[in-house]
User: Fold this.
Amino acid sequence: PAAKFTNDAAQSTSLVCSDKLDLIFILDASGSVSTTDFKLMASFAADVVNVMNVSREAVRIADIEYSSSPNVYFDFDDHTTKADVKQALISTPKHSGGTDTAAALSAAMSILFDVNRGARD
Assistant:
């Protein structure tokens, strides 16, 4: 059976992260992850956004989807509202292939955490 991703804090309206934060969601789209489970991961990420104060000044979010290679789906400055980020996350496309987690983490550090991609200094 598919794993069930839950997070009570993500459903809470009393917890809100409003500090400055650059957050990257890295979603595994490899062949070992079913389309159903990929959608659950993306939905979970969107639920986490519920407790974030998404804006240019506070929480900025980026997204990488990976399998054999990483694909930056959106940068920190592409979506500046909670609704836009949530919609982009659940719309992240799934590409099958191998599982190169190291390449995804490397891309997060070398590509996204760059001021030219919207990261903070």
In short: The two ends are 43 Å apart (CA to CA).
